[in-house]
Structure to design on (423 residues):
């Protein structure tokens, strides 16, 4: 058996086979002959989505390239490509994604299949950019689906969690290549919360990070602009200094409040840069962490954030990382956390190697109590009863899943329990 771990090191699997096929024929043979199959991209999921004792497949080496539509409004892209590779190839064609998050190692299929997103009150998750899918079924045959062809399969697959087959390619909506201006500043927390609606309306993308024990935030805003000469790479935060603070936090948790207030005081003046959108979106995130994220209905989001921060301070929870706060537009995808309306996305992190289970559970109760729905790939304690209550189309998703994979080849123990598939 092969040892596999996720990015943070907290999820471990021992697949009997780790396959990296280079062609569709080779992939079909692997899938058809396997007893159980799961897919893996960059391992950025913090839940055991990829765990299997069967066959674990990576499509990073699968042959293929992007196919640009005649109207240049969409492209077919290899599903196993990382977002970094995809956005580089798109830029070479004069194209950009509508939106993306602040890291780009994830595979396209993994990002879309779990509802990964960036920020922007008018912009949905990467799943909303998917307009077609080429899917390999359990017997190794291929099917193409979209809103007109196999529409129910397509609706399920837009955020399919790897339960419907192996996604080999996706058609995604794109825009002409554009540049972004990034502004990073320190703002008082209360001012950001009081002016939140105006701030989000004024920029295409707005987010902020707030340390639980600090009264200021790191505010980041991105907006399309004209190019301004050669691009110079720079990270939005000082990873080196932050790593030092995290290491101190791990050794001496009692110092976390002092460290966090000190880090915010040490932040210099506003920072600004301009560059290709895909360069500005993606940051270097080298400090490893564990993460939980809930998508809270927008109307209740800020009050819920205040309550969560207040609880962390009162309970003196030793959380070394800041909360990350973003906005995401509503969509109509069956298993999307954003299907019920626009959301405030609240991410809670903990430095890798520090305790997180009890800390996350305490904050999760607050976020779930406000009607929050968890990001599928990040830490949560959702069960079948909770999923049924939060996702009214879950029964439709499971019906489609049974139709394409009645033997459960793409189901692992985690999904079997979460969705009561074997019941």
């Amino acid at each position: 058996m092969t040892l596999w771990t996720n990015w943070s090191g907290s999820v471990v699997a021992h697949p009997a086979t780790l396959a990296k096929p280079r062609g569709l024929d080779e992939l079909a043979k692997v899938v058809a002959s396997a007893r159980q199959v799961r897919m893996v991209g960059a391992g950025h999921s913090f839940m055991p989505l990829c765990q299997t004792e069967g066959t674990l497949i990576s499509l990073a080496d699968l042959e293929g390239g992007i196919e640009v539509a005649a109207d240049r409004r969409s492209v077919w892209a290899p599903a196993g490509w990382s977002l970094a590779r995809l956005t580089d190839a798109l830029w070479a064609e004069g194209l950009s994604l509508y939106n993306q998050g602040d890291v780009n190692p994830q595979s396209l299929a993994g990002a879309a299949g779990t509802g990964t997103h960036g920020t922007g009150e008018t912009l949905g998750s990467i799943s909303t950019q998917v307009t077609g899918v080429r899917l390999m079924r359990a017997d190794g045959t291929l099917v193409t689906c979209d809103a007109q062809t196999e529409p129910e399969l397509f609706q399920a697959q837009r955020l399919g969690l790897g339960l419907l087959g192996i996604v080999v390619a996706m058609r995604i909506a794109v825009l002409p290549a554009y540049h972004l201006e990034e502004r990073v500043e320190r703002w008082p927390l209360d001012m950001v919360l009081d002016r939140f609606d105006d701030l989000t309306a004024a920029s295409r993308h707005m987010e902020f990070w707030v340390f639980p024990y600090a009264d200021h935030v790191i505010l980041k805003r991105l907006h399309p602009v004209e190019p301004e000469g050669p691009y110079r790479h720079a990270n939005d935060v000082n990873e080196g200094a932050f790593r030092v603070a995290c290491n101190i936090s791990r050794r001496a948790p009692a110092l976390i409040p002092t460290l966090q207030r000190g880090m915010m005081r040490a932040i210099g003046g506003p920072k600004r840069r301009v560059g290709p959108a895909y360069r500005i979106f993606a940051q270097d995130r080298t400090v490893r962490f564990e993460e939980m994220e809930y998508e809270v209905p927008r109307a209740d989001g800020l009050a819920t954030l205040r309550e969560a921060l207040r609880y962390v301070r009162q309970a003196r929870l030793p959380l070394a990382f800041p909360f990350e706060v973003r906005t995401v537009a509503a969509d109509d995808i069956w298993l999307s956390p954003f299907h019920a309306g626009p959301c405030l996305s609240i991410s809670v992190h903990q430095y890798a190697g520090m305790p997180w289970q009890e800390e996350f559970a305490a904050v999760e109760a607050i976020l779930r109590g406000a009607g929050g729905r968890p990001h599928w790939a990040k830490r949560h304690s959702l069960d079948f009863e909770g999923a049924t209550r939060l996702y009214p189309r879950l029964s439709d998703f499971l019906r489609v899943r049974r139709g394409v994979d009645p033997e459960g080849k793409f189901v692992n123990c985690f999904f079997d329990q979460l969705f009561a598939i074997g019941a």
User: Anything to note?
Assistant: The longest helix spans residues 298-315. The chain has a mean pLDDT of 96. The first strand starts at residue 4 and ends at 5.
